[in-house]
Each structure stands twice: as C-alpha cells, then as structure tokens.
Amino acid sequence: FPNIISDGGATVEDLGHHAGYFKLPKSQGARMFYFFFESRKKKDAPVVIWLTGGPGCSSELAMFYENGPFKIDKNMSLAWNEYGWDQASNLLYVDQPVGTGFSYTTDKSDIRHDETGVSDDLYDFLQAFFAEHPELANKDFYITGESYAGHYIPAFAARVHKGNRANEGVHVNLKGFAIGNGLTDPAIQYPAYPDYALEMGLITQAEHDRLEKIVPLCELSIKLCGTDGTTSCLASYLVCNTLFTGVMKHAGGVNHYDIRKKCEGSLCYDFSNMEKFLNLQSVRKSLGVGDIEFVSCSTSVYQAMLQDWMRNLEVGIPTLLEDGINLLVYAGEYDLICNWLGNSRWVNAMEWSGKENFKASKEVPFVVDGKEAGKLKSYGQLSFLKVHDAGHMVPMDQPKAALEMLKGWMENSLTGVDAVTTSTTTEGEDLVAQM
Amino acid sequence: SSSTLLNDRSFEISNLPLSRAEKLIRELNLFPKLDVNVIDVTDSTLASAEEEVPSIVERSFR
After folding, report:
1. What residues of A are labeled active site?
2. What is the CB neighbour count within 10 angstroms for residue A360?
3. Which end of chain B is more exposed for a tag (fewer CB within 10 A), N or C?
4. How many CB pairs under 8 A join A and B?
C-alpha cells in the first residue's frame, strides 16, 4: 500500500485492488468499509466474500493472516501470499458488523444486535457493490467465513436467497456458502465441548461426567432462547458457557483455538503487526480512510451480539440446500472452541431430504499433493470436511489445503480425481458416533 | 442458580461477556484504541462531507 501510484491512473486499475466505503441505508450514519481484490488468475473467477467472526473482529485479521493476497513482513512490507484465495476468486473482505475495522457510524444505535441487522447490511452492500461492478454480478457468488461467522453466513445466504426469490434488485448468482470452524447450532455444539475434550484427553472421565450435568440446563436455556429470545438468550449464554469454561479450567492452559499449542500467558497469537500496518499514515492515505481509527476487534460489537450468540442459525439452511445451494462445513481437527465434533453433529442432524443419504455416505480422504489433508463426507449439496493438522483458522494453519478446498468445492470436485475410498459406512458414522 | 447447583465458580467475573471480549482481544495481541468505531459527528471532516456522497465510494490502490 505505501508507494501508491497516484490516484486515477489506469495502471492502478490494472492492479485490481480496490477499497471503499458503503453507506448503510438502514442506519442513521453508518459506513461499511471493504476491500475487493480482483482474481489474480481468471478474471471470470467466482466472487467470494469472506466474513470474519469474533464477534466484532475486523476482516483484516483473515485478510493478512489467513487467506488474503498479502502477508505482512516484519519490516511492515507486504509479501504475496501464494495461497491467497484471490488465486481462485474475486475476493471481498468487509469490516462488519459496523463498528469494527474501518467501518464506522456516527450513531451508536447503528450497532447491530442480531442476524437480521447483519444480513440486511451485507445484502444492501452486495447490491451496491454489484451495481458498482456490473461485470461481476453474473459471476458465481460464494459466501465464506469462520468462527462466529457461522451465524452471519447462513443468515446472509438466506437473505440473498430471499432477495432473489422476491426479485429484489440485482439477482445474485449464489452458488454456495462455506462455514469454517463455525458456531451455527449452539444447542448441539455446546454439549459437544465435554465430549470433544474427553476424546482429546483434555479432561478426565470424572470431569466429563460432572460437566454433563450442565448439559440439560444448557439445552433447556437454548430452547427458551429459540430464534428470537432476548434476555433468555443472555441467560443461556451465561449458563452454557460454563461448559466451555469448565473444560478450560481443567485443560491445562491449552490454546482453545489449537489444543496442540499453549498460550504464552494471555497471548495465543500475535496479530499486532496488522494494527501497526493499518495505522501507518501512508497506508491510511492509500486506503482513503482519512482519520478513521482501525478497530481490530470491538468489545462493544462483541457485547451487542450477546443475545444473538445462543440462537440457532441452522434452521434456515435446509431450505437453501433443497433449492440447490451448496454448503461446505469444514473444521480444523485441533480447534476446541468451534470443534469439528460439534459441527459434524449438527450437520448430520439437519433435517433435509438428503439427510439419510448424507449420514450413510462414505468418508473419503481429501487429498492434496497426494497426501491426505482431511476426511470428507458429502452428499448432494452438503459437504463436511475435517481438516488434519489445523486449528480454528484453517487457511492460516493449512493454507494450501484451504485453497485447494475452496477450488475443489467451487468446481464441485472436492472428492477429487485421486480420492481413494478407504473407509466403510460404519466409519462414516465414526465422524459422529465415535464418542 | 446453576453455579450453586453445581458448586461451580465459573460465574467468576472473568467469564462475564466484557471480560471475555477483552480476553479475546488480548489473546490475539491486539490493542485497538477504541472499543467501537462510533465517531463524533461534530469533529470529523469525513462526517461533514457525508451528505453528498453516493452510496458507495471506491478507489483503487496499489
């Protein structure tokens, strides 16, 4: 970004890197900041939007440390990321919900509290973006993201689908949505904490059994929260999080994003270079953000989502599957906080026409460079991938596998040519029933 | 009530939402100057230009 070529020159256009602000129509005074990187390869590549979780963390976290075109070197220069997802897509990063990153508002009431607010903002942004880039509007469109975006993604996908069916504005060619180590169905994922922790040797059987006593309480509280509760959802958040903190209390200081690692004191990762870089005056000037601060993660946005946290976002997914929209759920196997077991359980439990076939489908290796990079289970529009040797941030831990996963999924060739079927149906259950 | 039921001190202050949000940020070694990007309309040059701008303003950068 420093050393920018002067504004408005055609050469800058050729480089295909854009940044901008979108005025949120359903707000008092909010502007959403985004990055758009044209595909490094095929100009007719699909459009992929990435949503970071937190909740309340900025998209630049993923852009610089996971799957964006650049990495930040120690001396604040940028190096190309060989496995950036712009290798296979026209790639969008949006700072949302408003209040995080360079997105800002002049009115605190614009801070979003639920998925209706989030999905409406993203939908309105997408409409304006495609109006600005009409040449992209008919491209295949995929929604991807991670962690708390396991809430945002299905909500946004449902909003796009609803808009298309009602012929609202520009028709969006939504082909699929992918959730990485997400939180989508808390009623299934929270009770999976003690089971995953026991399986991975983080807690004893006795500690597991003690935590199991909380599960009925947590499940009841989530049921009370439902899809539109308020204070009941807050209570559920407090009750159910004792399952997670109960595991962590006995897990010997493991990094809950990657149980193979330990946090150094309170430090599990060091993303501080991102803040340094984005606060460089030359970078701010290049991006046109003026004197707007960069908020890497927002505690206020996090808290504003507390009533949203325990809501079930799986409910809107079956309709999307039945209408032919693909879903990929993937999870690094060493992540505790959004572990693969909880994700696998809600995916297997989803009520849709392909449920039994999916459950019975064979588990096949996901092979990259002739080596098994994960275990894949799929049927029809639905795919579940357990990624080996990765934690919460799969594109950071397994960048090549993540890029191949994206490419294969968008080309409907995830199982790949050289996939070897090595497992029997019962092992398929393994992904779920092993516990 | 569940904490008394389970004799579990997980309801300590460190687990309340704000603390969890701050812990998340500390774990990533991040130090945002603001806890949220709400700008004061009166003193921002940007805000004063708000009314006339189109819904999306984009620029190319290198």
Report:
1. 147, 335, 392
2. 12
3. N
4. 191
Chain B residues close to A238, C-beta within 8 Å: 11, 15
Partners of residue A368 on adjacent β-strands: A371
Q: Which residue of A has its CA nearest to B1?
A: A239
Chain A nearest C-alpha distance from B34 (Å):
6
Q: What ipTM was reported for this prediction?
A: 0.85
Q: What contacts A431, CB < 8 A, 6 or more positions away?
A: A344, A348, A363, A375, A377, A384, A386
Residues of A in contact with B46 (CB under 8 A): 290-292
Shortest distance between the Cα of A318 and any Cα of chain B, in A, equals 31
Contacts of A269 in chain B (CB under 8 A): 27-29
Q: Do the chains contact at B2 and A242, CB–CB below 8 Å?
A: yes
Q: At what angle do helices A192-199 and A231-250 cross, to 10 degrees?
A: 10
pLDDT of chain A, 435 residues: tens digit per residue: 444 333 333 333 445 889 999 999 999 999 999 999 999 887 789 999 999 999 999 999 999 999 999 999 878 888 899 999 999 999 999 999 999 999 999 999 999 999 999 999 999 999 999 999 999 999 999 999 999 999 999 999 999 999 999 999 999 999 999 999 999 999 999 999 999 999 999 999 999 999 999 999 999 999 999 878 889 999 999 999 999 999 999 998 899 999 999 988 888 999 999 999 999 998 998 899 988 999 999 999 999 999 999 999 999 999 999 999 999 999 999 999 999 999 999 999 999 999 999 999 999 999 999 999 999 999 999 999 999 999 999 999 999 999 999 999 999 988 753 444 444 443 444 455 333
Mutation target for A interface from B7, B15, B55: give the one with most A CBs within 10 A.
Answer: B55
CA distance B19 to A67: 29
Contacts of B18 in chain A (CB under 8 A): 299, 303
